[in-house]
């Protein structure tokens, strides 16, 4: 415990000591006040920066949406998707940093405006652009302009309020600094005045101590935290030096720890940014690949190649696809990593397949009642995610992804789950588009009533088959059929029965031709059968067989007896009756005309 200088000061000069002690305490308090105001200024600057960033995200999203509507270029959606993912985080940071009910209400209103814009403007525009297959006008709609303008006004008021608060806090910071300076000057002056009336040794001791402490303090303020006060002795100044040195050592240790923590945090953030960037690039590559697919098989092949790269950070996973229009069991399109390989029976126990809801299972903490049986079949600690691929017609499949447990990685796992859900949504949209494209292509070459190929498909296929027959030097026959007395059936029994008759004949033709033969509805009650590789005699026998089958066909009607149908047929063969599609069809048509004139219900071969 210091005692010598204290006793001398009490006896010789109580006042200088009191002045110095008071000045030091007041200076410390002023310094603390200055640091507090400086932190407030920095926090306000951060809030303003985040608010400006929030506005830029909205503007980037709005620009990207308009660019995509104008060009239908998927690259424009990258800023839009980035804005959708970063907007909630930036908004959450602002909500945590801002105090005051008015500012919170403004943030809430801005969030509603953004969500309303995404739902009512952006999503609608993107879906319409994708559905129409052509770019939309790039000009903003009145609804979009109103939402953007209102968002700008609200965020402008928010920033103005924060800037006003910033000015006040900066003024407080300057006042605190001036107050600290005034305290320091007054303390020194009073100490010097006290020293003038004390003994010279006390003045020397005091001067040396004050200079030492002041110099070390200034250097510490400038950033040199290795400074230490050197004051030998056992008096109060030596004790102060010891306390100062202890405080400086502790502060230096805290700063070193803070720098190390900041460096580790920066490295972690950099790693996360790289991982997120890689994930987004993989997701974008998957979307582009799926958009280029023309049919379901090529889309499944693309998923088989791309999914292991998209989920390279996962332990493994699998993709199951279903065909809602086929009784075939679910098909496992791909399987990657170290995930369990389930069979069809085990997969069909998945809750996501039956409920249509995502299943997020964390083992071993999850309750067994809520865990999919296929997960329990090979329980592995970690996170198991089952995502149903729900399209407009139902569940297209199930995406299963598995992660190993990671220590202190709850936030990362949540982000990965959100990423997986986003990938599942992309897959649903792409697979739905591929299936819609297949249906449209199928509808363009099929007759809506009979399901047979239509005239367009006939023209394309006949030309192709004739070219093949010419290359391979093989025959090709064309058989043209016409239902006899079809108009009286429509007139007497109605068009509904006429349609049933056409369907019945179409089904019979499909059932009694070779696998390589192509049956088309030529128009009205006329049908054409292309027979690649069939000679004239074989085609004649096949035509007579079809004629007899039609004659034995009964078409149910609301009359006492079923309606009997007959057909007339005209047969033409390449190369005897024509060397191109037009001539061959004309020859078959003329032969059909002769069969009609000859009494119907017969087959006539075209004249050479």
UniProtKB/TrEMBL annotation:
It is an enzyme of class 2 (transferase). It catalyses: 2 GTP = 3',3'-c-di-GMP + 2 diphosphate. Residues 474-608 form the GGDEF domain. InterPro entries: CHASE3 (IPR007891), Diguanylate_Cyclase (IPR050469), GAF-like_dom_sf (IPR029016), GGDEF_dom (IPR000160), HAMP_dom (IPR003660), Nucleotide_cyclase (IPR029787), Rev_trsase/Diguanyl_cyclase (IPR043128). The keyword Transmembrane helix applies. One of its GO terms (cellular component) is plasma membrane. The chain crosses the membrane at residues 6-28, 183-202. It holds the Pfam family GGDEF. The keyword Membrane applies. Its EC number is 2.7.7.65. It comes from the Bacteria. GO terms for biological process: cell adhesion involved in single-species biofilm formation; negative regulation of bacterial-type flagellum-dependent cell motility; signal transduction. Keywords: Membrane, Transmembrane, Transmembrane helix. Residues 204-256 form the HAMP domain. Signal peptide: none annotated. SMART domains: GGDEF (SM00267), HAMP (SM00304). Its cofactor is Mg(2+). GO terms for molecular function: diguanylate cyclase activity. PANTHER family: DIGUANYLATE CYCLASE DGCM-RELATED, REGULATORY COMPONENTS OF SENSORY TRANSDUCTION SYSTEM. This is diguanylate cyclase. It comes from Chromohalobacter israelensis (strain ATCC BAA-138 / DSM 3043 / CIP 106854 / NCIMB 13768 / 1H11).
